[in-house]
Specification:
Elements: H1 12-22, E1 27-28, H2 29-36, H3 40-52, E2 56-58, E3 63-66, H4 68-83
Antiparallel strand pairs: 1-3, 2-3
Helix pairs in contact: 1-4
Amino acid sequence: MIKLVRKLKRSRTEIIQAILDIVQEETNLTAVMYKSFISYSQLKKYLDLLEKNGLITIDKKKKIKITSKGSQYLSTANKLSEMIKY
C-alpha cells in the first residue's frame, strides 16, 4: 500500500495508485475522496480518466471497483515505485 502522507505534493501517478489501491474492494465516492485525501472536483477528474481507460468501473449506485486492467496497472506501478525509492 502506498504511504499517502509521505509528502505534501503527490504526483498524478501517485494519486492514481492511491485511488486504485482504495477501490480494490468496491467502495463509494465519499470513501475514495477521504482515503485518497483529494477534493471532490479532483476525484471526479481522476475517476473520469480511470473509467475512460478501463481501469475502474462505476455502477448505477456509484460504487467503484477496480478492473483486471486496473489491477495490472497498479501492480506494475507498485513495482516501479519499489525500484525507485526516495
